[in-house]
């Protein structure tokens, strides 16, 4: 008799944990880069204040670029190992510039309804626009997916057959 296989849990757990660590590091760096965007203190003399502000701005830009590099590394790790990232994780990353999307800081979110005068509530679309590259991602809001044609109620083939019988009888 052969040994039964035990369920080992998640395959490639090490790679998932590495991708998670890189995502958390990018999140930390992105928030750290946005943290110091307050105006500099008025206590320093005006000449030193301008130099100090330029250094802080340069440092923040470097930290933001480091955050984007870490996101790029995370994407490379998941592509090489052929693991799938969750949809919630993918929605928080810009595809084009690898910026972590933080609402109100690095992106803007708007719900649009481009139906005739916004009359169709099921046509709502969430638009997330990246402030870095200007790219917009669109996601449907609360719209259930339509079932496959074969599974839909009211089989279309029966209705067609009934019409043909009615035409013959008339």
List the helices and strands and how they pair.
Blueprint: H1 13-35, H2 46-81, H3 87-90, E1 107-112, E2 125-130, E3 136-140, H4 156-169
Antiparallel strand pairs: 1-2, 2-3
Helix pairs in contact: 1-2
Keywords: Metal-binding, tRNA processing, Zinc
InterPro entries: Rpr2/Snm1/Rpp21
Organism: Purpureocillium lilacinum
Strand/helix succession: HHHEEEH
Count of alpha/pi helices: 4
SS-based structural class? Answer: mainly alpha
What is the helix fraction of residues, given as a range?
40-55%
End-to-end C-alpha gap: 71 Å
Q: Strand fraction band?
A: 5-15%
Q: Count the strands?
A: 3
Low-pLDDT runs of 5+ residues are none
Multimeric organization: single chain
Largest sheet: 3 strands, antiparallel
Shape: flat
Biggest sheet, strands in spatial order?
1-2-3
Radius of gyration: 26 Å
Average pLDDT over all residues: 82
Keywords: Metal-binding, tRNA processing, Zinc
Organism: Purpureocillium lilacinum (Paecilomyces lilacinus)
Region (Disordered): 139-170
Protein name: RNAse P Rpr2/Rpp21 subunit domain-containing protein
Briefly, what is this?
The chain has 170 residues and is mainly alpha-helical.
């Amino acid at each position: 008799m052969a040994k039964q296989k035990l369920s080992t849990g998640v395959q490639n757990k090490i790679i998932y944990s590495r991708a998670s660590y890189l995502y958390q590091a990018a999140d930390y760096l992105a928030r750290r880069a946005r943290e110091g965007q307050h105006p500099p203190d008025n206590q320093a003399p005006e000449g030193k204040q301008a130099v100090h502000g330029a250094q802080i701005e340069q440092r923040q830009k470097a930290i933001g670029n480091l955050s984007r590099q870490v996101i790029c590394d995370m994407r490379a790790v998941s592509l090489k190992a052929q693991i799938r990232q969750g949809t919630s994780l993918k929605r928080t990353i810009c595809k084009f510039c690898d910026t972590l999307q933080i609402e109100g800081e690095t992106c803007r979110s708007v719900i649009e309804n481009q139906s005739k005068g916004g009359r169709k509530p099921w046509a709502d679309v969430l638009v997330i626009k990246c402030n870095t590259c200007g790219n917009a991602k669109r996601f449907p809001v609360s719209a259930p997916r339509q079932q496959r044609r074969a599974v839909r109620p009211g089989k279309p083939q029966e209705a067609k057959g009934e019409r043909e019988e009615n035409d013959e009888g008339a």
